[in-house]
Amino acid sequence: MIKISDFGLIKKTNSQLTSIQTEFKGSFNDPALITDGFQSYNILHETYALTRVVSFVLTGKTNLNNIQDNILKKFINKGLSSNKAERFQSVDELLQAITQL
């Protein structure tokens, strides 16, 4: 298994890939976690972070305000929506959207 990113959110006690001492850090994490709290962590926080990673890989930018490509902009707006009901609801849905880029 190759690990390309670690959002520091899921802790598997029997895994050598994560540590329970990891702190919440990183600019790609869902800022809603600050108010939601980790007790309410779910896949929508993960798809947010994955959208940020994919967007960065495709654009090389962390500031996504000036994206001109409408298809990419739609992908970013969906994945990073503050309304969680509008976000990618699963990794499969996110992967399907990536194939359309």
UniProtKB/TrEMBL annotation:
It comes from the Bacteria. This is Protein kinase domain-containing protein. It comes from Fundicoccus ignavus.
